[in-house]
Amino acid sequence: MPEKPSRAMRLGIAGPVGTGKSSLIALLCRQLSDELELGVVTNDIYTDEDARMLRAAGVLDTQRIRAVETGACPHTAIRDDITMNAIAIEDLESDFPGLDVVLIESGGDNLTATFSPALVDAQIFVLDVAGGGDVVRKGGPGIARADLLVVNKTDLAAYVGVDADLMVQQGFSARDGRPVIGLSRLDTESVTQICDWVRHTLGHYASGEHVAQDPGPMAPHSHGDVTHSH
Ligand SMILES: Nc1nc2c(ncn2[C@@H]2O[C@H](COP(=O)(O)OP(=O)(O)OP(=O)(O)O)[C@@H](O)[C@H]2O)c(=O)[nH]1
Asked: In this structure, what CATH number is given to the domain that contains residue 76?
């Protein structure tokens, strides 16, 4: 058994609005909190809604769930100026020494927002079948190079006329062999798969084999009348 690392593995969960990031965090807390010491940091633009939802879900001691109110563009706080998130994580780590994993939820953003490797050790990019079958093919840094791509809500595929297996296949083609999981909270096999992925990644992190990757900058975009290309 490798020695416990000096700090928790920081695992980012990114992806467009409504794809199921908070639900995935709730699921991981429910499944893994008996075996791992977990903490959560959420990012919302003007509210602490996601943190309140997770606290209300009763999946973790409420003190272990911290909210960052990012203001403005949510990606700024996970990529360009990570200070608020870094402080929230350090507070959690000092209040709960011995945390194994801190899950950090990005504010739902556009398809190209990803975490800086200075903030997270590994990141999951979450899409859902309801966003349409073409999304994976269209690509973007998170889709192509996050440590894991999740195609979520596969239980809804038949209702929205999307072939979930094809989306997963397209994910594999876009990712040079990096992992892709088709997930539904109603499908226990897929839930086991994602929990195993977290355990496996934590094992690599703990043994020092895991190297944080930068999926790449987001596409040029506009904040009001100013155009940024990060
Ligand atoms: N059918 C189905 N619905 C799901 C699943 N996972 C999440 N949802 C639903 O999808 C909706 C959005 O989920 P959230 O977890 O709030 O999504 P989010 O990405 O955190 O949303 P933002 O924080 O607003 O970006 C909710 O109504 C969830 O109940 C799933 O596996 N299957």
From this structure: 3.40.50.300
- Whole-prediction pTM: 0.92
Give residue-wise pLDDT tens across range 181-199: 999 999 999 999 999 999 9
Q: Which residues are annotated as a binding site for GTP?
A: 15-22
Kindly give the distance from the C-alpha atom of residue 209 to the centroid of ligand 1, in angstroms, as a whole number: 32
Range(s) of the domain holding residue 24: 13-208
- Centre of ligand 1 from the C-alpha of residue 35, in Å: 25
Predicted ipTM of the assembly: 0.98
CA-closest candidate to residue 47, choices 21, 67, 33: 67
Instruction: Return the structure tokens found at 215.
Output: 């999926």
Would residue 184 count as lying in a domain? Answer: yes
**Domains: count for the chain:** 1
Ligand 1 centroid distance, CA of 21 (Å): 7
Relative to the CA of 184, which ligand 1 atom is closest? 31
d(CA 23, CA 36): 18
Would the CB of 152 count as within 6 Å of ligand 1? yes
CA 230 from centre of chain = 20
